[in-house]
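for ur thesis appendix - Phosphatidylserine synthase. copy paste whatever u need, i formatted it the way the template wanted (i think)
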Amino acid sequence: MIRDWWMCTIVSVMFEFLEYSLEHQLPNFSECWWDHWIMDVLVCNGLGIYCGMKTLEWLSLKTYKWQGLWNIPTYKGKMKRIVFQFTPYSWVRFEWKPASSLRRWLAVCGIILVFLLAELNTFYLKFVLWLPPEHYLVLLRLVFFVNLHKKLGQQAWLVAAITVTELLIVVKYDPHTLTLSLPFYIAQCWTLGSVLALTWTVWRFFLRDITLRYKETRRQKQQSKEDQGRAEGSVDGRTAGPDDASGPEEADREGVLAAH
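the 3d part is after this line
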């Protein structure tokens, strides 16, 4: 659905921090450090992201020949055509470039928050509604979300509405779990992270632009002064040059002409 290394990795790492932070609410989030960072981030998520991106890269470079099935001479070609029938007509690369503008940065942060909330809802709904992991509703919900990738852009509002509705269900049926206060050191960590993110946002989209404009203005002024100095120097050079009528021979010629 995301198709971006940076976004997928951020969501993967951030979810592990959420598991650390919410261990006091959901007991199944309490795992060993190697389970968090080796099994989840590196092996499961990392390998899944790598294989997924390589698959997208392979599909985006592949040329499709949309010819009739019975016009293909070989059985191998017919089977390959049948398999490709269930793939998209084309794969388009998309670069998020989150730091290109403030609006895009806020949009990307919003997308990350919605994805993290959707993943958290999976565990909270199981815990609140007493659903075992193998229950068919758990798998059905995930399949429903995966199928939204075909029209995620047009249905982004629908995904956000479903995610918020799921959160409201958790709040309604088990407000006690959600109101368990964060441990003090966890609250400090999230406060520090929020301050750092806000500081970087202000520097990147406000202070940095002001600094760059100030440096550009100074450079233009310095360039104009240098150009003006070169222009004045060239004028002075022409005034005192050898072509000026200021030598003794020229004065003698003028005196002879005046006498005549």
